[in-house]
Amino acid sequence: MNIRLGKISDTEKISQTHKASIQILCKDNYSSEDIKNWTSILIPEIYENAIKEKVLIVAEENNVICGFGILDVKTAEICAVYIHPDHISKSIAKNILLKLESLALENNLDILNTCSTINALDFYKHQGYIETEKSFHQLPNNTKLECIKMYKKIKPV
Predict the structure, then answer these.
(1) Entry pTM
(2) Which CATH number does the domain housing residue 73 bear?
């Protein structure tokens, strides 16, 4: 497993991974309409913006993108950690999150925030994130998704 910075040439594969993750891993916690609206905005161009404006990393194995994560250094936020459903239970999400936390430390951040999907709540708790409140994340198409705001004080290992 190789974790590296995402490239513009990865955006189609990232989009496919993101959609599959939501469609399979979020289906028990979000309505089919919410999932349809959510995945409809996941076009490759949005990942180009993340590559240019934030830190986007991918986990790759045999030229297959198994997962990705996004860190916004300006807002000290983990914006995304998504794993393709074919690659869950391999510690990929944990390794992506640890890499994002390491990159945050390199950028002199000591507290990270995230807005967890309902299905990822236990994952983040297991990684030391603390739940603060329930909230809603509004997508560009005005779909509101229930989420949980969380934070973690990070420190060098």
Answers:
(1) 0.95
(2) 3.40.630.30
